């Protein structure tokens, strides 16, 4: 009788973890309940989680907080001593918008204390050196990625970037710089544009950076746009709004616009209804990102939107919102009660680039505030150390990791 050989038994398969057998819909419901920071951490667990997490991300990059230079609160007028007018620059700091946002810091950049924040775009910060430059010289620019703790100090353009540059150098006026584009959020691949006025016409200088390698190019002057006034009236800081870049001009009814796709300059006229020397700021509407202009004049807030309707006959603008701020000011402790005093000491400093529906209000000696367009509530913009937010107040958005932006398989 044949004897049966020894039987070979395979070990049982390891039990599946409960989380691995979750249907995609259930896993997505769980991930959607996480804060943004925890969601990004969960996406690093495995390829399956990354694919599901990418479906939970909002369409637009979320606002993480604001970078600004803290500044001491000035004295209300009249100023008694000239020393009170001196503004001492402090290194830029980050204020997270809520507890789930990361606490970013520029402590890893010791030289940042010698630079001033000028722009924030696509997860990058652009800083210019303190102090004035010799006539005709473009500055060295410092670009920082707080999320990856990378930085690069950009050299000025070589002298041969523009043919016959000596001719233009004598009349050149440097206006300002801005972050133009970013090719890859995980690397320092980006473009910066510098704006100068050469012989009465604007010129764009573009530096392309690829992980530390810099290449400058200068575009021909835009001869259709004439700068017939003193270029010192240009504000050095740009505004990103509705896909273009804008530079305000003091005491002017127009702003200088730059189209990033063509690098062509043009003038954008403000609403003709504005006072001749009225203070206005360019921005975006919070709900749909339309180009708009806001003013705070004579205790009245007004917002004009770039229109496509038959009512937009005021240089292409139509007024969308108007609010009397007299009662609003009455609810804020410490603001002057006299109307003339209010008009003299309160003005609009910016629109919130974070598209939160707020305006930033600056005062002469009474602090800085945010004004909510929907609730008409004014809140003091102060820090824990007795200082207040200084200009500019740069909204910082998360730059999505490239894996999240790639189409799903």
Automatic annotation (TrEMBL):
Signal peptide: none annotated. Residues 16-71 form the F-box domain. Pfam families: Beta-prop_AT5G49610-like, F-box-like. InterPro entries: AT5G49610-like_b-prop, F-box-like_dom_sf, F-box_dom. It comes from the Eukaryota. This is F-box domain-containing protein. It comes from Hordeum vulgare subsp. vulgare. The lineage of its organism: Eukaryota, Viridiplantae, Streptophyta, Embryophyta, Tracheophyta. The gene is LOC123395933.
């Amino acid at each position: 009788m044949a004897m049966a050989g020894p039987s070979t038994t395979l070990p049982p398969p390891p039990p599946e973890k409960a989380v691995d057998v979750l249907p995609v819909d259930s896993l997505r419901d769980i991930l959607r309940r996480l804060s943004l920071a925890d969601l990004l951490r969960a996406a690093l667990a495995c390829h399956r989680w990354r694919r599901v997490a990418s479906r939970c991300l909002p369409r637009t990059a979320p606002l993480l907080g604001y970078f600004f230079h803290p500044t001491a609160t000035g004295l209300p007028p009249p100023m008694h001593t000239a020393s009170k007018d001196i503004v001492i620059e402090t290194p830029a700091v980050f204020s997270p918008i809520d507890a789930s946002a990361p606490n970013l810091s520029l402590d890893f950049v010791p030289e940042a204390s010698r630079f001033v924040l000028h722009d924030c775009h696509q997860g990058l910060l652009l800083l210019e050196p303190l102090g004035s430059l010799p006539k005709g010289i473009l500055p060295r620019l410092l670009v920082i990625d707080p999320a990856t703790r990378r930085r690069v100090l950009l050299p000025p353009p070589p002298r041969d970037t523009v043919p016959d540059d000596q001719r233009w150098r004598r009349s050149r006026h440097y206006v300002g710089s801005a972050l133009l584009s970013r090719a890859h959020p995980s690397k320092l691949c980006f473009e910066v544009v510098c704006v100068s006025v050469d012989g009465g016409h604007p010129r764009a200088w573009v530096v392309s950076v690829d992980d530390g390698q810099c290449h400058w190019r200068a575009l021909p002057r835009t001869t259709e746009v004439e700068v017939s006034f003193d270029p010192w009236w240009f504000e050095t800081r740009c505004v990103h709004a509705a896909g273009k870049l804008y530079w305000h001009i003091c005491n002017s009814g127009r702003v200088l616009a730059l189209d990033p796709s063509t690098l062509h300059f043009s003038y954008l006229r403000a609403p003709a209804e504005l006072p001749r020397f009225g203070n206005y700021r360019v921005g975006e509407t919070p709900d749909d990102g339309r180009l708009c202009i806001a003013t705070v004049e004579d205790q009245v807030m007004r917002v004009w939107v770039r229109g496509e309707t038959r009512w937009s006959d005021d240089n292409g603008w139509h007024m969308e919102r108007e609010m009397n701020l007299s009662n609003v000011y009455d609810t804020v402790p410490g603001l002057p009660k006299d109307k003339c005093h209010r008009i003299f000491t309160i003005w609009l400093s910016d629109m919130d680039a974070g598209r939160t529906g707020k305006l930033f209000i600056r005062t002469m000696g009474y602090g800085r505030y945010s004004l909510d367009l929907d609730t008409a509530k004014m809140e003091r913009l102060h820090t824990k150390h007795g200082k207040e937010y200084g200009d500019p107040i740069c909204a910082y958005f998360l730059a999505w990791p490239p894996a999240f932006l790639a189409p799903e398989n």
